[in-house]
Amino acid sequence: MKKLEEMLEFNKKFVENKEYDAYITSKEPNKKMVILSCMDTRLTELLPKALNLKNGDVKLIKNAGATISHPFGSAMRSILVAIYEFKADEVLIVGHHCCGMSSINSDKIIEKMNDRGIPKEIVSTLINAGIDIRKWLKGFDSVEESVNESVKIVKTHPLIPKDIKVHGAIMDPVTGKIDLIVNGYEV
Fold first, then answer.
1. Which candidate, 73, 67, 71, places its Cα nearest to that of 93?
2. What residue ranges do the domains of the chain occupy?
3. pTM value?
4. pLDDT single digits (tens) 88-136
5. Is 156's pLDDT higher than 90?
6. In the chain, what percentage of residues exceed pLDDT 70?
7. Which residues pair with 167 in a beta bridge?
8. Which of 84, 147, 151, 165 gives 90 a disulfide partner, CB atoms 3.0 to 4.6 angstroms apart?
9. CATH architecture of 23-100+142-187
């Protein structure tokens, strides 16, 4: 059986057995917070458990590296929607140690694209059109700097109300220990 078929078969039984009852909640986060974290598979269950989060407590956004790579990109849009539509009044950016984005080499990613059938001409066309694909694919050297930069982008964004508290933290992906590096209450 293929992966998707297995998941859909499970889902059918999940719905038939009404297992969803335990997860029913509203669209608005109970704790009025939006969290941006990394898409790392180690954090899927660990992050909510380490922060005592239950279904419905927060709006949780995940992307590669827990980064705001553009002030008008999709991560920032999601944060703004969480604030204005779902009444979030705090933002928490959670990076983690040993993040895969800290070792990403954009040239190697482009090579892998070529190896998977993406013609070199497409990458050249994007570069010639002013799209800095290498910068877009680049990771970061320091998770601390990355979290600080993302906090700064959110905090200084022209569409973020001044009363929104923006925090930054780094998690150990093994133990779940959280180190606060930006306390939005003190800034």
1. 67
2. 23-100+142-187, 105-138
3. 0.92
4. 999 999 999 999 999 899 999 999 999 999 999 999 999 999 999 998 9
5. yes
6. 99
7. 92
8. 165
9. 3-Layer(aba) Sandwich (3.40)
